[in-house]
Amino acid sequence: MKTAILGAGAIGSVVAAKLVQAGAGDVLLVGRQDHVAAIEKDGLKVVSAEGEDIVQVPVATKLDKKHDLVIFTVKTPDLEMAYQDNHPYLEDCLILTTQNGVQADNILCTHFEPTNMLSSIVMFGATYSQPGEVIFNFPGNWILGKPYCPLDVTTHDIAEMLGKAFDVTVSRNIMGMKWLKVFVNFNNCIPALMDMSMQETFADIDFCRLSILLLKEGLDIVKQANIKLDSLPNFPVDRIIGLSQMPVEQAAGITKEVLTGLSKEPLYGSILQSIKRNRPSEIDFINGEVSQVARSLLSDAPLNNKIVGLIHRIEETGRFLTPDDVKKEFKLNTIK
Q1: Which of 124, 244, 325, 332 has CA atoms 20 to 30 A from the CA of 39?
Q2: Domain spanning 179-334: CATH superfamily
């Protein structure tokens, strides 16, 4: 199978490297010129808890031929551009989306036959560090499904191929799982306010309290909208529902323990990584998704609205907030 990966950021680079190492067919990684040039010169460096690997990954800045499978690993705001830059070679191929949020398939569905579309949820973590280098922070499942059609033989064939390099699960309810993943990613926005790692941010119990308040508000909105969440492998719905129903202080303590222990290497969420690369972040498709649903219900999500607005202000100005600024914005010193 000939596989192209559109987007040589953290996830795309790790996917390409692991598939090449596993011998999972012909692989091409498509990315920006600086990253491509560095990989062509010295190979792709993948840093993990097990050490460092240099992987010789074929790279290009655009597609120049058709592939059997095209995996979109750009961020959601960049999906349409990735399609337009490569569309002459995207006819009749299978495509697989990997983006956070629930809108990626809706964005691309105008360009592809529904039967050719697969959707997925990435549960492993990675960080783009510099051109030619990424950090593989922690392993996790890769969950595949069909957003518009029933599962078919092709879905299982793709899962088998990707399964050579990753722990792959096939889901009959990929959208219910993607909604749960929205809440798994809800915490990305808080470190992005201050240009801090996940570990550094959530070592402060005040930001753990903010995390719980955002979660409580978000879950209340999706409940009003009758959106059904579905459990992820090793992450049941009841875990996040239970967290939201605890007293804030108790839930914050659990959040601190979990998020400060995610990775030995500093972990920077996808929103902050985009801001640092001067790219639009996925905030509108994570916390902003809750804000959009609230508006459709003629309801309100003030905490998530505020954090979306602050992230957009940072994107526009390049000026991060201090921890004290964030605590004042959300009145965290008054939370019990």
Answers
A1: 124
A2: N-(1-d-carboxylethyl)-l-norvaline Dehydrogenase; domain 2 (1.10.1040.10)
For residues 3 and 20, is the Cβ–Cβ distance under 8 A? no
For domain 2-172, say whether CATH 3.40.50.720 is its number.
yes
**pLDDT tens, position by position, 125-174:** 999 999 999 999 999 999 999 999 999 999 999 999 999 999 999 999 99
What confidence tens digit (pLDDT) does each residue in 174-207 have?
999 999 999 999 999 999 999 999 999 999 999 9
